[in-house]
Amino acid sequence: MCTPTVIWVVDDDASVRSGLSSLLRSLDYEVVTFESGAELLAAVARARPACIISDVQMPGMSGVDMFARLVDATQPIPTLFITAYPMPELRQRALALGANAFLIKPVSVADLTTALHAALSH
Question: What are the boundaries of the signal sequence (predicted)?
Fold first, then answer.
């Protein structure tokens, strides 16, 4: 029996978390969701996902700031960003920190799964 691949999703919008969770579960991934970067950072001390899918703009701490803290504190975790606000400076910063993808909402299922498979195989 194989251990399921665990994907963490962080987004302050409950409907986005729910939609991504449903999609990822339909692709046979196990999903853990967080509504803030701070929640995810607290959890990474106890567990480690195969990949993170994060919103960029969130109250309190942006997804890119959360990712910068992860990069400083742990071994790299493949990370995909999804945003409705594709600011070039945030995209550049995220990719410079080592993010695997910076996708723009609404993201197609094909683009998301392609980016996810690439991140997991890296």
Answer: none
